[in-house]
């Protein structure tokens, strides 16, 4: 009955998250409240089941892959920092960001990082390459049982042919970037967070 | 030593006796007698107005406190955390393709994944369903610890006020209300049992009406409920079904104190069972055994029989099947809309400033909830009686149910959702994911898929077993699909499939009592 969410988040934590992700103070407190409401076990971390409880995510064909993106390699729980770090990829790219501190490294929501996020959705075994198998598996997730194996196979082959420039029958990250250079990634992979 | 105590003892007893009698007399005069006759002194409204002023003052002080410390007050996301696109997923994916004409060979674009991905993350940040099953968050503070997120901004003055509030609520209001509740329920049981002894006829039904109304009015005062009824000319009549949105068990008391209804529900044991049996003696209600609830045809038959008899009272049903948090109306189960009689929709909206009436049945039990309700400031709500509706030509039960739902949502200012309230406890059915996959396949491969499409769908149904089989007869309803896509609401981008779930649902297995 009403969450005490904002009280459990300290000001120092909020400042650190602000620096790392670029979200504003009020956005962070609201997202913390959301995190807290998803956390049914009330242990300060989300498990995969907590995500799967969201119906709109459960019916998304790539739901499992997206959930996976929140969890670092081999871990089953994601804390609030991790949650915010992943969400930060979807912040819209603002022009004034480019002029900020050049030493702080690339912001999480840069075009490159957005593309990397999408690349990792395809790259099931995290070996930095999208093999034909991996592409097939992801395609199968997206189309369900509605397309035959042969047709799907030929779609995958064609896609790899078009993208592959060094002939290793798989798509590396740089090849991935090249294929999508004309796509407005910044707009498609951004969520409009309200202030 | 002892001799000193005796006079004090006697004095104490006398004082206690007097105060008790005084208290009880006041109770009788100001609360029970008006309840019996259905009049009101207006005490509750005065109480409500003064409380509102105090709440505003408290919120202002908290804001001032926060500003002094140079911090920000936590404001719940009443306007939403994110702004979502209004374009459907299908359109978004189509935009990527260079032309709208399906290519001879399937075109897969690696950027298709972006749309799915973004929508998935959007639903993680803010989805339409999970937030309906927890209490609504408020902007102002109503002096209850349970709804305060800013308590580190509270000054001493506010703490004192809060302390006084606790004292008033637990030491004065709670015992008063509990007494009233017991009186109300006790009277109900006794009176209805007595009336049950009379032979059936006009006298019996008229007395039973008066007894029911009186006892419910006492219960309303036991909760300090301030109810405003609108459009009473549309009140439900005999031979009809009254449907309303469901927020808590109190809904029953609120509606029944203004009109007489036949209740529908499962037979319970214990105190609830005693009350149910007593009520049944005075006028016909519909109580189902646990085993009968699963039998859809039996349920429908009993309801239609009741409705056909014009001497019997209108039936009260909550088609959502579970309690929702009063910010939205979720899918109506079609069972009550198949009966083919007049439906009287009613919209109930609680004022959240006074305390949240939502019963989170997965977290709190009924007794806990009632105590919580009785120890809060009160319940303020509005009831709108909507004009009666009938099923139209060529409209099936699901479409009718959605039409009624839309009317109720519009009147009460609630969001109209297509999702099933059962998602509170259950997982969403796999069918909807398959719908999404089918949609994407169509875009990928083009219109030519249609001829294979239906076979593929049928094939998928058999291999997926029971969940789909139950509704398989409706899954092919092509008009149903077309209708749903046109009647889209803004919250329902993915939900057109969920809308069809209306056709797949089982009968309302929980009526009023969860």
From TrEMBL, chain A:
Domain EF-hand: 26-61, 110-145, 151-186
GO biological processes: protein transport
Pfam families cross-referenced by the UniProt entry: EF-hand_7 (PF13499)
Entries under Gene3D superfamilies matching the protein: EF-hand
Main localisation: membrane
GO cellular component: cytoplasm; nucleus; plasma membrane
Keywords tagged on the record: Calcium, Cell membrane, Cytoplasm, Lipoprotein, Membrane, Metal-binding, Myristate, Nucleus, Phosphoprotein, Protein transport, Repeat, Transport
Subcellular location field: Cell membrane; Cytoplasm; Nucleus
GO MF terms held by the record: calcium ion binding
Database matches in SMART domains: EFh
Top-level taxonomic group: Eukaryota
Matches recorded under InterPro entries: Calcineurin_B_homologous (IPR051875), EF-hand-dom_pair (IPR011992), EF_Hand_1_Ca_BS (IPR018247), EF_hand_dom (IPR002048)
Protein family: Belongs to the calcineurin regulatory subunit family. CHP subfamily.
Name by which UniProt lists this protein: Calcineurin-like EF-hand protein 1
Organism of this sequence: Electrophorus electricus (Electric eel)
Taxonomic lineage: Eukaryota, Metazoa, Chordata, Craniata, Vertebrata
Automatic annotation (TrEMBL), chain B:
Parts forming coiled coils: none
Domain Phospholipid/glycerol acyltransferase stretches: 240-351
GO BP annotations listed: phospholipid biosynthetic process; triglyceride biosynthetic process
Comp. bias regions, Basic and acidic residues: 454-489
GO cellular component: endoplasmic reticulum; membrane
Stated name of the protein: Phospholipid/glycerol acyltransferase domain-containing protein
Main location: membrane
Stretches for region Disordered: 454-492
Organism: Electrophorus electricus (Electric eel)
InterPro entries for this protein: LPCAT1-like, Plipid/glycerol_acylTrfase
MF term (GO), any: glycerol-3-phosphate O-acyltransferase activity
Pathway(s) served: Phospholipid metabolism; Lipid metabolism
Record's keyword terms, sorted: Acyltransferase, Lipid biosynthesis, Lipid metabolism, Membrane, Phospholipid biosynthesis, Phospholipid metabolism, Transferase, Transmembrane, Transmembrane helix
Keyword Transmembrane helix: yes
Encoding gene (name): GPAT4
Keyword Protein transport: no
């Amino acid at each position: 009955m009403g969450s005490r969410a904002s009280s459990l988040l300290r000001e120092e934590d909020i400042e650190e998250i602000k620096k790392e992700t670029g979200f504003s103070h009020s956005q962070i407190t609201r997202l913390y409240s959301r995190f807290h409401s998803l956390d049914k076990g009330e242990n300060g971390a989300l498990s995969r089941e907590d995500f799967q409880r969201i119906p709109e995510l459960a019916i998304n064909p790539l739901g499992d892959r997206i959930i996976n993106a929140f969890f670092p390699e081999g871990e089953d729980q994601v804390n609030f920092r991790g949650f915010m770090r992943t969400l930060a990829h979807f912040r819209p790219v603002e022009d004034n960001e480019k002029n900020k501190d050049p030493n702080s490294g690339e912001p999480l929501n840069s075009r490159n990082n957005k593309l990397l996020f999408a690349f990792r959705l395809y790259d099931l075994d995290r070996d930095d390459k999208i093999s034909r198998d991996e592409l097939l598996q992801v395609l199968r997730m997206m189309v369900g049982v509605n397309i035959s194996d042969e047709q799907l196979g030929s779609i995958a082959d064609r896609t790899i042919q078009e993208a592959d420039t060094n002939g290793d029958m798989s798509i590396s990250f740089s090849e991935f970037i090249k294929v999508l250079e004309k796509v407005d990634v910044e707009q498609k992979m951004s969520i409009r967070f309200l202030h | 030593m002892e001799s000193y105590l005796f006079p004090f003892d006697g004095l104490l007893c006398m004082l206690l006796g007097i105060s008790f009698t005084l208290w009880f007399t006041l109770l009788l005069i100001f609360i029970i007698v008006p309840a019996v006759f259905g009049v009101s002194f207006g005490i509750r409204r005065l109480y409500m107005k003064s409380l509102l002023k105090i709440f505003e003052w408290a919120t202002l002080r908290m804001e001032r406190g926060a500003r002094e410390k140079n911090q920000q007050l936590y404001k719940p996301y009443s306007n939403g955390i994110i702004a979502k696109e209004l374009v459907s997923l299908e359109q978004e994916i189509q935009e990527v393709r260079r032309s709208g004409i399906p290519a001879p060979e399937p075109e897969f674009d690696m950027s298709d994944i972006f749309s799915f991905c973004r929508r998935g993350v959007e639903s993680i940040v803010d989805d339409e369903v999970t937030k309906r099953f927890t209490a609504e968050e408020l902007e102002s503070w109503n002096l209850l610890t349970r709804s305060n997120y800013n308590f580190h901004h509270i000054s001493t003055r506010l703490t004192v006020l809060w302390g006084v509030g606790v004292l008033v609520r637990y030491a004065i209001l709670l015992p008063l209300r509990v007494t009233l509740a017991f009186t109300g329920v006790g009277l109900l049981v006794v009176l209805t049992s007595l009336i049950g002894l009379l032979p059936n006829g006009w006298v019996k039904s008229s007395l039973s009406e008066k007894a029911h109304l009186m006892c419910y009015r006492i219960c309303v005062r036991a909760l300090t409920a301030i109810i405003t009824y609108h459009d009473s000319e549309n009140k439900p009549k005999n031979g009809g079904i009254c449907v309303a949105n469901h927020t808590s068990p109190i809904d029953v008391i609120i509606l029944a104190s203004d009109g007489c209804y036949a209740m529908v529900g499962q037979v319970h044991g214990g105190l609830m069972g005693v009350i149910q049996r007593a009520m049944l003696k005075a006028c016909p209600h519909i109580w189902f055994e646990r085993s009968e609830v699963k039998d859809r045809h039996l349920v429908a038959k009993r309801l239609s029989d009741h409705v056909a008899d014009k001497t019997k009272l209108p039936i009260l049903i909550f088609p959502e099947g579970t309690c929702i948090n009063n910010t939205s109306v979720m899918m109506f189960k079609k069972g009550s809309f198949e009966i083919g009689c007049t439906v009287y929709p009613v919209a109930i909206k609680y004022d959240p400033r006074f305390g949240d009436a939502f019963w989170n049945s997965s977290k709190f039990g009924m007794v806990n909830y009632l105590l919580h309700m009785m120890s809060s400031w009160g319940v303020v709500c509005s009831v709108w009686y909507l004009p009666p509706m009938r099923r139209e030509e060529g409209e099936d039960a699901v479409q009718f149910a959605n039409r009624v739902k839309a009317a109720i949502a519009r009147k009460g200012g609630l969001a109209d959702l297509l999702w099933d309230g059962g998602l509170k406890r259950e997982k969403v059915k796999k069918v909807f994911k398959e719908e999404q996959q089918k949609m994407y396949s169509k875009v990928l491969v083009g219109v030519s898929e249609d001829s294979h499409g239906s076979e593929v769908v049928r094939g998928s149904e058999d291999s997926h077993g029971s969940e789909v089989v139950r509704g398989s007869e409706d899954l092919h309803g092509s008009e149903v699909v077309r209708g749903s896509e046109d009647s889209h609401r803004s919250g329902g981008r993915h939900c057109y499939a969920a809308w069809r779930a209306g056709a797949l649902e089982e009968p309302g297995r929980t009526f009023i009592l969860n």
